Fold these 4 entries.
Entry 1:
Amino acid sequence: MSKSQKKADLWYSKYIRVRSAVEHDGEYYNKCISCGKPMLLKQSQCGHFIGIGKLIHRYNHLNTWPQCWVCNCLRSGESIHDYEQNLNELISPQVVEYLKDSRNNFCKLSKTDYEEIASKYKVLFLNLCADKGIIPW
Ligand SMILES: [Zn+2]
């Protein structure tokens, strides 16, 4: 992975995790899209429904939701079924079908594209942190 792609992934992932974070007793939490368990904001991961290998949806807001480490890394095979089911309810079965049908659509990102994604999501992340009262990390 190139340096610019790593940076794009980093800021995008932070943005997605802060996007759905909710506060409870001074701590921020996310709910895992697959198993539904609550997890601390910084322990949550950015889980992709259509895998990151499919560039077309790698930075798609509808395709990326907070996921726990166990579902994302250990049981990614099984957890994807729960992911799909919960995504059907969260967005809509039509959108889920669209994500699946278009997964192989051509997409090529240049170094400049990655740099733009990184700076865009860095700003969005920092703004969202400020709005929610979260200390950026
Ligand atoms: Zn989980």
Entry 2:
Amino acid sequence: MGTLLIRAGHVYDGVADRATEKGFVALDGDTIAAVGRQADLGSDTAARYEQVIDLGDGATVLPGLINMHTHMSFTGGDNVFHDAVNDTDTVRMIRIVENLRASLLSGVTTVRDCGTLPHLALPVRDSVERGLLPGPRIVASGAITSTGGHCFYCATEVDDEASMRKAVRAHAKRGVDFIKLFSTGGNLTPGTNSLEAQFTEREMCAATEEARRLGRRTSSHAHGTPGVRNSIKARVTTIEHCSFQTAKGIGWEEDLAAEVADSGIFVCHTIFRGVGKHANDPGFDFTANHERYLAVLKERQGLTRRLADKGVRLVAGNDAGVSYCGFADFPGDLVLTAEGCGFSAAEVLRSATSVAADALGRPELGVLAPGKVADLLAVEGNPLADIHDIERTRMVVARGKVVRAAA
Ligand SMILES: [Zn+2]
């Protein structure tokens, strides 16, 4: 791998409000050695590096993106439930490899997977770590639901406190990175109720207590307000969706939102375009279900804005793998998050880099600074000035290796 010097018109560290002009990033193997201004490089600099890539004044280098919510084995088809239940492990594995490839080429260098069976997710994670398989780093979950509950096809089913503790322990024994709790039902799984809790508060607390004891963070899928409430009580690390869903639609819960902010729980909003990508496609047949998704998406954008205003730390994840959400879609979904929720480009980029790394408890990720991992994305233009530029991928570097060559 050796040493590599990358020069670009703008370098964004994943933390600041704007990029450094005429910057550079120097890599030593799989680690960032230096970040700074080209003006501070000596005249003999180029000769000291084994490789020099000059992306020109129009390009921006930033940390590789972190997609905080994915399902690697899902199809992204119209009926994900049908696919998930009927696919064999072999087909799932082929899909995982393809999804990881698409993800990496779009500039995502880390995915947090929120529901792929550990016997599939862990060998893939380890193969990426060993360099056997090109892909983003995988932060893999061990998922837990109630019997027949949301995502039962990719989770351990438990129904009481004792079996909850056992499931957390068994997942930790297998080597998962974090515990994913399905604290309410979900739209993907027929027969579940999105509005109601799937676990009691005591069961949720048992899960987080065990996870904490075993050094694992926790993530809780929560649409209905009772699930959000239990997730706060149990002090999970992240709440996924956090939709405050009620029978009358999305409700706003001022006190609960304040509690989420005060307790330092991160919210992964899972804003994604989904069928919205086909809005200008005359051949696409919008069903009532699709229209409903788009209406709820609008409401959830407003809710996400209010959570941010309340001081909740947001992380970006697009639920890649669910219906109409592909693994190359993440940059485009960041654009929607900025425009739909009214966030600045820097806010959105931080939620997919440095803040995401914080939520993962992985300080070596998500920031361009000496000593951090050499995971980078280069795009044409400057996404801090125009967030659309985040989709103009020019180069991707993962662990110091150029995996998508400069174009
Ligand atoms: Zn999900």
Entry 3:
Amino acid sequence: MNSPRALIALSTIALTAFLISCGKDDKPKPDDQVRVREASLNLTCATDRTNAPNTFERPIVIQVSLDGFRADYMQKINPPNLNKIAKAGIYSPGMIPSYPTHTYPNHFTLVTGRTPSHHGILSNVFWDEARKEKYDAFGDSSGDGTWYQGDPIWNVVEKNGMIAHTNQWVGSEVHVNGQDPTCYAPYSSKVNTAQRVNIVMEWLKLPAEKRPHYINTYIAIIDSAGHSAGPNSKEVREAVMEADREVGRLWDFIQKSDLPINLVITSDHGMQENFQDKIIFLGDKTNLSGFKWSDKGAAVMLYHDDEARVQQAYKDLKAKENNYKVYLRNEIPAEFKLDNPDRVGDLLVISELGHYITDRTFNPNKPYRVGGGSHGWPASNKAMHALFIAAGTHITKRRAPITNFSNIDVYPFVMELLGVTTAVPFDGTAATLHPFILQD
Ligand SMILES: [Zn+2]
């Protein structure tokens, strides 16, 4: 069995610029967690864990997130490595994301099989009327595990006697149900795409008792380029090609490995071009003072404790409905699956594709400007559709593209590949992707 220091040594070899910030006496801390720091990557590893001996030969799953990879980039940009991997395995021309088509809800759906209403991360920003608190993906609340429900795949893997390592995946560092993957790293914009792939390969080089059976890593550059320059931009093309090179490097590594590795590549949502002349200033249509807002952009949820204020705002917004739709909470269409009464707004306002909802009060002193692209619109818009590719030792070669399936079905697929189960309920079904798993 490896000692705690042995794992640090391996990580240090893997990522040469590491500084080790464990205790000066080199003894494990009380919780046996040792922090390994690089200038950017900030890994925390539990060094006392090993795979159960009877699991050493079990399959490995690597889950890669390409944030904001719009499904049709596969045709429009034609990234060669992603297309090669798709041909070696299975592929969907458009996986249907969960609503709202934002980063945090969909990343956590991909690893819990639950809709956002059921795993709790209803949007990137929302209010909980029971807690009387705001969740903000970009604030401290996103690190509080009590917001998150469901059984994340890394917890399932660990409870089934195997090691899971995660890199910057939403929710993997927040101790959901008090549990963690063996190694995890919180999000850092300073980690470049090559480093995000290098760490995966280094983890695969660990000895059998320490080698994770589940690994994920998160790649941000395509979403960033989409927001700043729009989905049809040269910047997005370059970001897709850079991600493609790195994923191709990982695929080549997998091909040379003797390990039973399956690679699952997903995105969380697509991307739509923004238009400066399609901004909807909601406060021009009704008095929204005192209302709390969720995200801005494609849609907003609005919250107010005074039911009369809610009804008045609804009446005004309904009367001026143009390029958007407004719903009271109890009339939100079932297709959106927004059934979390504490967290769904009193009002939901959804703009038509390409329109952008905001308010002048957010930026009172100068003209409001939108970036090149946004997401958040319903999945009925193909611009919001997401990427799904899977290939490896336990996955069939491509037959027909897989159409019309939801991202809640990725979680049971990954569990079946790994041979693990959970007693915790989830919304997805294993039946969707089961036919593409090669049985031993
Ligand atoms: Zn995203």
Entry 4:
Amino acid sequence: MFGKRGNDDGNRFKPEFRQPAPTPAAAPAAAGSADTAVLARPAAAPQPNAPAAQPARRAVEAPPLAPEQKRGREKSETYYDTKSQVFSALIDTIDLSQLAKLDPESAREEIRDIVNDIIAIKNFAMSISEQEELLEDICNDVLGYGPLEPLLARDDIADIMVNGSKNVYIEVNGKVEQTSIRFRDNQQLLNICQRIVSQVGRRVDESSPICDARLPDGSRVNVIAPPLAIDGTALTIRKFKKDKLTLDQLVKFGAISPQGAEVLKIIGRVRCNIVISGGTGSGKTTLLNCLTNYIDREERVITCEDSAELQLQQPHVVRLETRPPNLEGEGEVTMRDLVKNCLRMRPERIIVGEVRGPEVFDLLQAMNTGHDGSMGTIHSNSPRECLNRIESMIAMGGYSLPQKTVREIVVGSIDVIIQAARLRDGSRRITHITEVIGMEGDVIITQDIVLYNIKGEDANGRLLGEHVSTGIGRPHFWDRARYYGEEQRLATALEAMEKRAD
Ligand SMILES: Nc1ncnc2c1ncn2[C@@H]1O[C@H](COP(=O)(O)OP(=O)(O)O)[C@@H](O)[C@H]1O
Ligand SMILES: [Mg+2]
């Protein structure tokens, strides 16, 4: 009925495929118990049934910081030196495993009393405010995520990147900047990483130095420890934003023009199959989340994600999440398992947070077998590269289909590729809205509908540009738009963009 999928119904290629090559067994994690890191040797032997030290991050309320303090407090060597002395004295005095049993408030009180005593006994010269700061730092170390706490408490940070104990970078407003935050040493950093990953039942150490995890607030965490990370543990946190950006906000930021946003809304509404392509942190997930806003409330939507980030507003949504293997290397549930299972759940649309591997084939199958309006994101730098990535991901699944057949499947499934990019000035833009329209010989033909043209840069190095229509008055999904009664809106948006470009 609408374009590609409808027209070639009679002779649509039904792919036959060989049994996929067995996926290599997940590398079994090194044997051993998931020893929860305690920051230092407890003064008394831990009780056999003592619960593992539970980080009490949420309960640790950092006092509000003045703006200039927020930017990263410069602390002197003396401060770190004093702190390290107080800290050693503290862990000589108290039993951390017992402390962990207390509720966070009592634990804090306990630490406060002892730290004050230590400062008095050792005669450290400190002002009240310095003392408060020291206490805060130490509580964060013992009860929370140490020096990361002030960064985790900030809402304006997109990513936290820790490269060894002395270099901590953050991304704010699209710009990466170094902070003055540092860890006492590599061991403290590794202990905090261990504490984070042990919450999801994993561990990180020399024998299993790579680990993905998640903070209780939903932030995604990756840890890679020495010896793989040569200069100390590298910890990367993609912070979870509770309030996801809306399409209107993206317009305000200039990520897309108002008319471009209108086109996106229509694409989402009229059930085009969409792939959002972009590099890491280019705004793919954000955009996917925005598009889901335009799904009708009556539709049954199933989402598959590695870690649940999407926040759909519709009532009829089933959210699924993959699972990494446990310490014994068992129990993994892959994205592919989820997408396949989805198909048995009578979805109207399937949304895959991030398509990385052979699950792409199952998603494409779903797209061209009645689950119009399915969506996913793919890591690639242009719509063309995105198509190539899809082909190679299909090959990863062990299917041995002729290249042309693979391309026919791609063309038969995907309607629109939306390209997101983080430009060199740190701004995030939608750079292409591109349709996949058909094949010419062996080649997939695409057509750009909207492009972002960079015109130059201003005095502050910010790029100037605008979103322009390429003059396609009637995109390939026109019939689809008409079916949903959106053709007039579509025509108006495209026309307005053309006028702007003149
Ligand atoms: N257009 C935008 N303008 C400003 N910030 C954005 C924009 N799009 C996304 N972000 C922010 O950038 C970060 C990364 O976005 P995300 O969608 O998770 O990227 P990806 O999925 O491509 O890795 C998030 O913190 C998000 O809020
Ligand atoms: Mg993402």
